[in-house]
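Review this today:
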Amino acid sequence: MKYEQLARDIIANVGGKENVSSVVHCITRLRFKLKDESKANTEVLKNMDDVVTVMKSGGQYQVVIGNHVPDVYKAVVAEAGFQGEPTVEEEEGPKGSLFSRFIDMISSIFTPILGVLAAAGMIKGFNALFVALGWIENTSGTYQILNATGDALFYFLPIFLGYTAIKKFGGTPFIGMAIGAALVYPALSTLTAGEPLYTLFEGTMFASPIFITFLGIPVILMSYSSSVVPIILATFFAAKVEKWLRTFIPDVIKAFVVPLFTLLIVVPVTFMVIGPVATWASGLLGQGSLFIYNLSPVIAGILLGGLWQVIVIFGLHWGVIPIAINNVATMGYDTILAPVFAASFAQIGAVLAIMIKTKNQKLKSLSIPAFISGIFGVTEPAIYGITLPLKKPFIISCIGAAIGGAIAGFTNVKGFVMGGLGIFGIPSYISPDGLGMDLWGALISIVVGFIVAFVLTMLFGGINKAQPSSLSEGITAASDEIAATKLPSEEVVSPLNGEVLELSQVKDAAFSSGALGYGVAIEPTEGTLVAPVSGTVSALFPTKHAIGITTDSGADILIHIGMDTVQLEGKYFTAHIAQGDYVKKGQLLIEFDMDQIEKAGKSLTTPIIVTNHKEQDLKLTNQKQVKTGDQLFELVH
């Protein structure tokens, strides 16, 4: 298998398969839910060749892979022995904030169907385009088949969400599908064609004609096709009912009796209570978002467009997407996602400018695939690998997206289907009535967003002057200047008193393999760490167990005091400097209590490595014992 080794390394560095509660993937990311995130080796993962970066957000540990994430996901599942998407029962304990749990829930429900959801939207959009251009008639068989292909998922969305939602809530997937199927059962919708028995809540905004009853209780029939909220609430209730039934129903009949009573309880309750309440809530949500948008479409467009890429970085877009889906289902269109359509085009505008102007051949070569994937709406490679490390181009792309969003707001652009990403999203803005200002406004917004980001990046992007401002940035994306010039020879002295060890002797694969960088390790005899070089403290971990220093010539030095000492959460470590400080060679950096650290069962072996040099660039000392100030190695060229 092509990604077998990568999968093995990822599993090992997220804390092993026993630390994984669940894992799913979206278009570019593996989304882990870990039992203990402190067990994950984030820096190791960030430095893997096939890993773009690592993000922690919404209760998830996200390993950004890129366009080939489905293949990596399959390799991870196969390597760890997971059956599909693991849903390991979580241990009791803190589960994050309410907001984080909400984002995790929404992303877990929608991520599995995201690809086919985008595909179906694209088919619907292109079908509308073909009719608008006069290529096909909306009465032709071609149109009908394409419409059925694109519309089926949206019409039967409760069935698909029934599967993913109840799985997230810990229930049986096929029970969730059965509930969803009941909600869109065709025979029930035909009952509303006759005369109602009476009207419930007559004279109020919730007035509802009653056509049938269940055991004498009135049932408010509504259209649940394409709906989102009712099935999510129903499956949440179903998972609780199923779990309760399993506590007392005998094992010998549990396989069919539990589903029997779960459906008999949940489906009627859903039709009588959950469905109507959720539908009313969905309508209010759609009207509420429309009300806010209508207060000032331009300001809404600026804010949504300008901040969208930041929202995506932190995975918070999952809180917005369900609102857009709900708007399409309840109102037939959406205005929430229209202002953000220009964001991906602004991003690739900045990337194109970098690709044209940079003198760094490695950065130029990275920009090409990032630009191509960005055309199709997949911007993570561009964000994490190109613009974000360079800072200014990322900010400029946000400015371009904000201007594009303002145009979309000013022209009141509406999306009519949840379509594809990037250029494949264009047909989503074709109205069922034909070509109109929604499409033209969307096109103008993306063109302007692209041009603004391109021009500003060419003029003010600082493309050939950028320097990494943190150790992690220096590791994940070397800037033009460092990559384009050789670093001068430099002496690195010992920051500790102790015994010198080869890096291969360190009992941590991330260091012993050279995955993080090259250098030596020291077994300290005193708990005092001094600066091995003069430079800027580019990273000081909150736990004070590790520090990064960028020298005046641009070398990145990483010192990691002990193994697994991050688990001590800063106990027994005292820092005498702060991140951003400039330190002189030999200056006191950190003091640590060796006795207490050893009593806690942690090794004191301390690697001192250079993260942006090749192994052959280091001339190591032959000394076995060193004192602070002794030469440890020399960086040569």
In short: Residues 84-95, 466-487 have pLDDT under 50 and may be disordered. The first strand starts at residue 20 and ends at 25. Residues 321 and 337 are 8 Å apart (CA to CA).
